[in-house]
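Hi all, long-time lurker, first post. I run a small reading group and we've been trying to get comfortable going from sequence to structure in the token notation. Rather than ask abstract questions, I figured I'd post a concrete chain and ask someone more experienced to write out its structure so we can walk through it together at our next meeting. Sequence below, copied exactly:
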Amino acid sequence: MDVTDVATARQHPVGLAELARIPVRRWRESLAAVALVVVGALVYLFVLPATYTATTAVVVRPVVTDPFSVPSGGADRAVNMTAESGIAGSNEVIDKVAAITGRESSDVADALEVETPVGGQVMRFQYAGHSESEAVAGANGAAQAYLNLRRGIYENQRAGVLKSYDETISVVTAQRTTTQRSLPGNQSTTNPSPRTSALLDQLRALNDQLATLAEQRSKVASADLSPGSVTSAARAPVPSTRDSAPLILVAGVLGGLLLGGLVAFVREALDRRVRTSAEALAAVGAPLLGGVRRNRGGQPDESDLRYLVLALARWVDGPQAGPLVLLSAAADEGRERITAGIAAVLAADSHEVRLGVAPESADRMRLLLLDAQRRTPPVERVASKLSRPRPAPVSTPVTGGGGGGGAGGPEDTVVIPAVRKPRPFPAADAANGAVYRSTTTDDRTEVIPVTRPAEPAAGGGDGWEVRIGAGRVHLVGLDATPGAGLTVLDAPPALHDERGVRAAREGRAVLVAARDRTRVAQLTRLTERLRAVGVEPFGLVLTGDGRG
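-- Answer (accepted) --
Happy to help. Here is the structure in token form:
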């Protein structure tokens, strides 16, 4: 695979199916997130105390000096609703509600909410209590406390204005009294003096001022200081947090799915696994020899193993035969099953296979090979019948005396059949463990197959062997001396054990990766380590279910 192929493999488009497949693959994280959110919703509904929310609506009115006048446009500008909202949430209102409900002022401040719609003069008091009665009392009490506070503020303002008018009127009245006393008593009204005319003008001005002040005072005194009225008082029944329990549970499930998908994508980004063959090829840079699926029993598919052996046949049966080393990054990627399956398929095709394993995995490999023997029983070798020419009978002349025992009589000839000797053991078949028994009464040779232990090999192998089909699998150690037949090595996890890599330097390395299990980072690190020691991966085997 060249650089262009690697770049093409890395540019794998991600579609909607892939987006949905990631949460399904990470179903544990998704299910845990859903369960966590649903449990939180259940605790909120049935463990925590219910919250009842009551709402009271209040219409705010401005100060009107003439209640019968037509209001001008822009009624929302007549009252500063921002200031009124601040008054509604003041400490005085909160203390009043705390006294009514019997709760702490801090709790009342958290439970009370004032809403002021834009462009209107309506205020809504929402109070969240632990019971219906508390919620209703809190909302109505907050609205009434606000109205009373606002009325008190306006009354204090009017009292201050009236006091100012009264003081001004008192001063003007005192000035008028002083002016009146300054007028001469015997002055003629038809021809007053200049001084008298000035005093009279001043007196008339003071009288006009007193009349204006009295009129303004009367307007202030008659102003309507009503702060507003309650248009919709809170009353039972009021909504609570348990009224929409099914909707909350559905929302919890949907929220859990969303959170689970997010967690799955985060885990996928942090812990990237091999999902497709393109990702595996991009990480290894070696050709894909085949994909081996699992059947219902968890065993490798037999047809996939045979196709894999066919892909390896060009090298296994070639002139440069050497050990075939199967490597994997971790121990849970199905390498042992693939190795045992390859050895079993080769043995079923009449090959003598030397299977090298580490001492710690010898017992597991024996079980796998015995299971393969149950699926593919041994095939008995029977020698074919060959037509052989029978030897000519050997005639032995016997001379006996003729009648009367005279000499020179005729000679009698007696034919004695020769006894056939048994055939010697064929050297090739005897080496393979076949024992031949021959008899003198029949031309057939009976073959009795036996299984004999092989010579112990160095490196932890015990020489155990098993017949599968027409061939054998000899279990030897990883560092066993080379022998006749094909050699397949099951290397331990190569990221933490270099024994398999040492053997791969003398043969061909085949990497085994498991779909949805092998981490891309581990596979890349293993490939880099192999190339660093001079081992070029021969190919890649992808195990597990799914589409490549």
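A couple of things your group might point at:
The first helix runs from residue 3 to 10.
The chain has 16 helices and 16 strands.
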